Amino acid sequence: MSAHGHVDLGHTVAGWTGTALALVGFTGAGAAVCAAWSPGVWLGLAVVALAGVVTWLLHLAGWGKPSGPRPEAEWDWRTRDTAARAGHADCLGCRAAKPRRAPAAVPRGRSSAPLPATDAGA
Questions:
Q1: Which residues on neighbouring strands pair with residue 5, listed in sequence order?
Q2: Closest by Cα among 117, 69, 63 to 93
Q3: What secondary structure, in 3-state letters, does 108-120 show?
Q4: How far apart are CA 1 and CA 38, in angstroms?
Q5: Which of 30, 56, 86, 101 is the most exposed place for a label (fewest CB within 10 A)?
Q6: Residue 93 and residue 59 in contact, taking contact as beta carbons nearer than 8 Å
Q7: How confident is the model at residue 45 (pLDDT cuts 50, 70, 90)?
Q8: d(CA 45, CA 25)
Q9: Are 64 and 12 in contact (CB under 8 A)?
Q10: How far apart are the first and last CA of the chain?
Q11: C-alpha closest to that of 77 among 9, 3, 7, 5
Q12: What is the DSSP letter of 30?
């Protein structure tokens, strides 16, 4: 048991990939600072920014996790989130991606007669 108790800490493909890319970017930027190579610093920082974008895209593709606890059966980091296609309700990343849900089909009546007017004041 860890210091955090028996909880899901969100170890996912998106999280591990983003962390690895960010680590590579920070390491490269740090080595470039030590070597006094300015373009290398910018390249390293670009890799860090790329890590954020890749993590976000993997989350949207279902390789992240929604906010809050998950069932213990889904704690494995390779478990794909099948509900991610519709977006997570309280997820900033999903809201930033705009709604991806298919618009609900509006049922059409058989006649082309206009619908009766409703009283908006009631």
A1: 2
A2: 63
A3: CCCCCCCCCCCCC
A4: 45
A5: 101
A6: yes
A7: very high
A8: 6
A9: yes
A10: 59
A11: 9
A12: H
Partners of residue 2 on adjacent β-strands: 5
Q: pLDDT, tens digit, for every residue of 88-121? A: 777 777 777 776 554 444 455 555 555 556 665 5
The residue assigned the tokens 């099948």 is 82
**Is the pTM value of this prediction over 0.90?**
no
Q: 10 Å Cβ neighbour count for 14?
A: 24
DSSP state of 111: S
CB contact set of 116 (below 8 Å; sequence gap of 6+): none
CB 43 within 8 A of CB 21: no
Look-up of token digits 């478990």 = 79
Residues 6+ apart with CB under 8 A from 20: 51
Which helix (H) or strand (E) segment holds residue 32: the answer is helix 13-34
